[in-house]
Amino acid sequence: MLNSSLSVTRSHSLPSTPTLSPLSSTSFPSLSSPSPSSVSCLLPSSSSFSKKLTSLSSLSVSQLAPPNDPRKQRSLKVKCSQREPLKVMISGAPASGKGTQCEMISQKFGLVHISTGDLLRAEVSAGTDIGNKAKEYMNSGHLVPDEIVTSMVTARLSLKDAKEKGWLLDGYPRSLAQAKSLEKLKIRPDVYIMLDVPDEILIDRCVGRRLDPLTGRIYHEKNFPPETEEIKARLVTRPDDTEEKVKARLQIYKQNSEAVLPIYLDILRKVDGNRMKEVVFNEIDLLLSYVLNEKEKAAKSELSTKTTTSQANMVSSSKDNWRGIPTRLNNIPHSREIREYFYDDVLQAIQRAVNNGKTRLKVEINIPELNPEMDVYRIGTLMELVRVLALSFADDGKRIKVCVQGSMGEGALAGMPLQLAGSRTILEYMDWGDDGALGTFVKIGAIGAKEVEEQDDMFILVAPQNAVGNCIIGDLKAMTDAAGSRPVILINPRLKDVPGSSGIMQTMGRQQRLEYAASFEICYLFRLLYYAGTQYPIMAALRMTYPYPYELYKRVDEAPGKEKYVLLTTFEERPSGDEINNAFEGKPRIQEKKPLGIWGFLSGIL
Ligand code: AP5
Questions:
Q1: Is 343 in the pocket of ligand 1 (CB under 6 A)?
Q2: Helix axes 243-260, 199-208, angle to 10 degrees
Q3: What string of DSSP letters covers 268-307?
Q4: How many CB atoms lie within 10 A of CB 403?
């Protein structure tokens, strides 16, 4: 139950990384229980705390000192609402595909699409004063006077939705005077996209263009015919789409665009618009994702300057020079920037999914520090991720229950998966900020129906998993049933059947359990891909953030000692190992030869 009356704005600190902390080297003695997990980052140092953690091995102290601990390091604030929205201008000759691309961009990035052409056409069809004045100019292919268009655009830009969601300005500014008006108002985009298409193509596109007056969708009688006869019957042609008028519009466009370009030269990105619309969009999508990422990094570093000077110095000195997907992911421990990138990536995906009404979600993030198959696995990183998620939702006034499965089995067989050993205790002693988040907006509990309370708004379940002889799914199902329509988010679940010594696990209710496990929708996935049977070097990465497609990136070495991730392709559905292999090698895979190729080992886990 999302409690809207609790819409309290709060801010929380994201503690610093153990690797950056001067205290990070302090170690607790190694203890008897063998654990693959290197527990770090989250522990207080006092002996009373350390006694409570005697089942943990190789512990190191760092940022998650208890509240009021003077060693506690304050750092970045996690506050989702402060994210600066994207501002984009798109320009190009008549029929270069601005409207077509804007439809896809605004759908993906949630920007408010402001098209001066559409605004003017709406005025014309409503028969307003503006429309009556504009009509003549438009029909002859001339520009409508600046004062009419500028006041329309600035009024639209000042509305709440454009300010909050960001905007995509299409067809404005079209003259130097218009560009100057925006500059005066300090309205400037993050990027100025120019679609480049040869003249002869433009004329054909205009003449063949058809519009659906009902949905506003743009069709082309040959390139993009309507899906049904019903749509076809209602399509209309724009009065300015005759060959003669298009030529005049083209001429006017050329004269004016030259005057506008110098103003945006520093943020100008030319995109070849003479390709399939999906290909054009792919390039724009990459560009905008990059710009967005850069903006977020800039915003974060602005926030981090508010931290202590020493912290700021450490942050900048450790800053790796990556763009988009962080590089050097095989370097352990992951730098603070890398961890923050992923926490934020996961957070945004969950937020989008929850905002879209999704209630059964799972996150699968397998960077080395979060991959329990690797000996560099760190439970501290998992806990830190969970804390960022919980506090960010708490910032929005939600009450979050963070749940770790309890001990399973009975008597001498009681125990829990190694990956989770001690995690509940760690969660309880983490620094949840000074403002009393823990116990009010954030509560810690176990997995099970009785943990679900009336006031809980959502549940974050930390790595729920089956263990030998025990299946968590019964408790999980009871809990989700009790949660009803409230979001339940599984972080790195492992819900495949694990064989028990008696063989019971594989048989009893297996099918139902697997179906239940599959009923959670992936809202975030990040997985590094390696050669079969190895964990080095990283060859590629697969990423999915709700609601976008799966993206396959190839890791490319750049001399000297640098690397980057290049987008190879996207998949609407989660790809199989073979599909990844095909995309990676750029050729179809010979069916009989699988699974010995470089992705052979992936077929089991993807
Ligand atoms: P406006 O509506 O903005 O017209 P425009 O700039 O001429 O652009 P278009 O809408 O014609 O084309 P588009 O680039 O959006 O292409 P589309 O995606 O539709 O302005 C109209 C008039 O309003 C102006 O002439 C002026 O009078 C006035 N006006 C507007 N803004 C003004 C301002 N700021 N100041 C003063 N006056 C202003 O695609 C075209 C066709 O191609 C479609 O059929 C589509 O299906 C097809 N197509 C798209 N992409 C592809 C592709 N990749 N491959 C093949 N076909 C494609």
A1: no
A2: 130
A3: EEEEE-SS-HHHHHHHHHHHHHHHHHHHHHHHHHHHHTTS
A4: 28
Q: What is the pLDDT of residues 409-432, one digit of tens each?
A: 666 656 666 667 667 788 888 888
Is there an atom of ligand 1 within 6 Å of 144 CB?
Answer: yes
**In which band, very low, low, confident or very high, does the pLDDT at 513 lie, cut at 50, 70 and 90?**
confident
Q: Is the CB of 284 under 6 A from ligand 1?
A: no
Q: Which amino acid is at 571?
A: F
**488-491/360-366 β-pairing:** parallel
Largest CA distance in the chain: 88
Note whether 89 and 169 are within 8 A (CB): yes
Question: So which residues are the catalytic ones?
Answer: 98, 174, 209, 238, 249
CB-based burial label for 325 (10 Å; 0-12, 13-18, 19+): buried
**Nearest C-alpha neighbor of 363 from the set 130, 495, 146, 526:** 526
What distance in angstroms lies between residue 533's CA and the mean position of ligand 1's atoms? 52
CA 181 to ligand 1 centroid distance, Å: 22
Q: Answer yes or no: is the C-beta of 224 below 6 A from any ligand 1 atom.
A: yes
Q: Is the peptide bond before 493 cis (omega within 30 degrees of 0)?
A: no
* 130 contacts 123 by C-beta, under 8 angstroms: yes
Residue 131 Cβ < 6 Å to ligand 1:
no
Q: What atom of ligand 1 comes closest to residue 224's alpha carbon?
A: 46
- If you measure from the C-alpha of residue 91 to the centroid of ligand 1, how many angstroms do you get, rounded to a whole number? 9
91 lines ligand 1 (CB under 6 A): no
Read off the amino acid at residue 113: H
Q: For 189-224, what is each residue's pLDDT tens digit? A: 999 999 999 988 999 999 999 999 999 899 999 989
The identity of residue 538, as a single letter, is I
What are the beta bridge partners of residue 494?
Answer: 465
Report the mean per-residue pLDDT for the chain. Answer: 77
Of residues 75, 78, 15, the one with CA closest to residue 44? 15
**For the residues of 511-529, what is the DSSP string, one character each?**
HHHHHHHHTSEEEEEEEEE
DSSP letters, 168-218, are EEES---SHHHHHHHHHTT---SEEEEEE--HHHHHHHHHHEEE-TTT--E
Residue 268 above 90 pLDDT?
no
d(CA 285, CA 248): 31
Q: Which atom of ligand 1 is nearest the CA belonging to 102?
A: 18
Q: Which helix (H) or strand (E) holds 247?
A: helix 243-260
What pLDDT does residue 30 have?
26
Residue 139 CA, ligand 1 centroid: distance in Å? 13
For ligand 1, pick from 102, 218, 252 the residue to mutate: most ligand atoms within 8 Å of CB: 218
State in Å: Cα 199 to ligand 1 middle.
13
Distance 253 CA to ligand 1 centre (A): 11
Whole-prediction pTM: 0.49
Nearest-CA residue for ligand 1 atom 6 is 94
Answer for the pair 405, 416: CB distance below 8 angstroms, yes or no.
yes
pLDDT digits (tens, 9 = 90+) for 529-541: 987 767 778 889 9
Of residues 394 and 269, the one with the higher pLDDT is 394
User: Are 431 and 65 in contact, with CB atoms under 8 Å apart?
Assistant: yes
Is 220 near ligand 1, meaning CB less than 6 Å away? yes
